[in-house]
Structures are given as structure tokens and as C-alpha cells.
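Hello K.,

You asked for the raw outputs rather than the summary table, so here they are, unedited. I folded two proteins back to back in the same session to keep the settings identical. This is the first:
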Amino acid sequence: MKRVLNSGFIKLHSFGGEAFKFEVKAPLITLLAFQDAHLGTINKPEDSEHQVAYLPSQFYSQDGSTYKIMDDKACNTYYTKLNNFFEWSFNFYNKLVKEGMCKEQAQLVLPQGVFTTFMWDINAPELIEFIDKNWSKSPEMYGYCSTLVLYLEENLPEITKSLKANQWQNIGL
């Protein structure tokens, strides 16, 4: 298992030939990027009933195509505001479920930063395509793509070496 950013992870469950099976813990907003790519197959793991609040310690601003960490005062302010919002959202979610609303519909009130865990089956060419198309979308996606590159490097070293020497040489992956 490899940690990603503050609270996420990617765990390789199996690799065979060119097929990877990953367990990914990521914010809902990041799951949407995985889904929007239409690459591989995404499934829920059997024990993914609980949600975990995502409270990043660092926040980013964007300058052109570069992300930079905001100053400590701004990070602390946003951390406090985000914590309050998440706490309210979870309390509201739990109230809706207690009053009888189904969990799937009650989850609509949860923020996109809430973590979820999913299984992702993907072949190597699609994985490379996913990394190519998503590494620069956000600091979170860069973190997940960088971690996926490490798994590529461990399991397909020659292909990864070629990619780093050619199409990935200027992007820091």
C-alpha cells in the first residue's frame, strides 16, 4: 500500500500480464475523475460502508498551470472552515439516515472531499492513458498519478523507463 497525500492510498491487490487490480481510497471528487476517464472498471469493495472526512493540512492556489501551497494562516483558516462544514454535513447525513432515508440518497449531502474506497481494474495501456490525461488536473490527481507511476515502475520497469525518458520527462512523474 502506498500513501497518497494526507489520507488516501493506492494498494495493488493483483497484477497479471498487463492487468492491475487496485484498491483506491480517495476523496469523492477524485473518484469522479477516475469515473470520467472511462478507463478500467470501478467497483465498491465489500467493506466500504463508512465514509471518512478528508481534512487536508495544506491548501493550494493556482498560478497559471502551477499549484502552490497557500501560506500557513490561510491554510489554518480554511482547515477550520472545512472541519466545521464536514461536521455539519456528517451530522445532517446521520440525521437523515436515522429518520429513515436510505443511505444512498442521504449521501448526496456529503461533501466531495469525503473519502471513499473503490476497486479499480485496469490494463497497462489504459493506466498509462489515465496518467497522461489526469496528472495535471489538480494537486490530488498529481498525487494519485505519481503513485500509479510507482506501481508501473515496480511491475513494468522497461515500459516505465521508456515513458519517463520520452513522454513524461518534463512533467516530474
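The second followed immediately with the same parameters:
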Amino acid sequence: MPSKTPQEEATGGRAVPGRSEVDAFLQKVAATPPPAKQAGARGRLIFALDATASRQPAWDRAMHLQGEMFQEAAKLGGLDVQLVFYRGFGECKASRWHSEGAGLLRAMTAVTCLAGRTQIARVLRHALKETRKRKVDALVFVGDCMEENVDELGHLAGQLGLLGVPCFIFHEGQDAAARSAFEQMAKLSGGACCRFDPNSARELRDLLSAVAVYASGGRQALADFSRERGGSVPQLTHQLR
């Protein structure tokens, strides 16, 4: 029987999110085929969040950090972001496309979280509809649970993968069923899944910024970003080589 790592011994064998998992996620982003774009075209990213009752703290963190995505993408020609969220009894909404952080912040500020079940399938169907109208370069989803049919979610994620829209899923919390579903969705779409520390603003900032850089400029831009940002992001360079 293999011996436990020091981290496993310290946590009784329970897996916990750490910098190594964030680094692995960022490496997976770096390995994702870059989006095909015409010269001078802006990146397009759907930023989807679970806005059910338990999500208010995570929503507040994301709201304060979303400007980082635009700042990093602006160096590469810019980024258009559409906010998508679900909450309450069957409510799932999408904002207009925002080309700067102030507009997205206003849209997020107007939303409060309400109790309800997950509606991830509706988010994926919306992403399919949007990219068929005009190419979407990536989908970011931040959530903590999954209460839907995993086969349906996998099928929709696979369709996004065929259209070249990778799903980058940030999982907050310890829900094993959600974790498994999110990993399958990410794999089928050609994206990646990462559980992050909900108390670390830096981790979420780095993850959001990395995907924004990828959506705006592809793999080489992400390599440049890793050298500039420091912290855990330079781990990407090993995959890029």
C-alpha cells in the first residue's frame, strides 16, 4: 500500500485544494489548443456563476476581482465578457457583452443570490447558442454543487468541445459529486477543472486572469503572462516547453 504524503497525513487522507492543484489547472489551460482568431479580433468569454443562496461570498469575491480579466486581456487587444448566472426558481439570465470591467461590475452589483437548484445545463445551452452566432473562445463557470443529470451535462459539454469552446470550471467546496461532474464536463469540452481555496482571492484572481489571457491571445500569450505575473503562474512554462 503506497505511503501517504505529508499533506494526506495532516488531513487524515482527505484531499485539499492547494497551490499544486492550481498550478496543474494552469498547466492544463496552457496545453489547451489556442482559439483561432482573425488578426485584431477581441477575445470573447462567457463568465458564468452559480448565484444560489450559498454563493453570496463567492459572488462578492468574483465581483471585486473580475476587473483583472479585462486588465490582462487589454494588453492583447481586449476581451468581451458576458455574465451568465442562475438563481431562485428557474431564473437564468445573461447580460449583454461587456468590453470593460466597469460595465460588468455594474451588472454583477445588481444581482443578489437567491435559494434555488443548479441550472448548469441552461448555462451550457446558452453558450452553444452564443458561439453558433459568433465564436466564443472560452466559458468560465464558478460553482460549488451540481443537482442535474450528469450525462446531459457531459453531452452539452462535448458539443461545446466540438465547437472549440473549452469550459474552465472553478469548483469551490468539497462536494464529491459536483467535483466528478465538473471534471467530466471540463474534459469533454477540452478545458480544465480546478478546486480552489475560497479564502484565497489571489488564487481566483490568477485563475480568472489566466483564462482571460488565453481567450484573448492563446498559448503564447499565456506563457508571457506567466513570466510577468510570477507566483504560481510560471509553472505553466514547463507545459509550454
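Residues 201-229 form the longest helix (29 residues).

Happy to rerun anything if the numbers look odd on your end.

Regards,
P.
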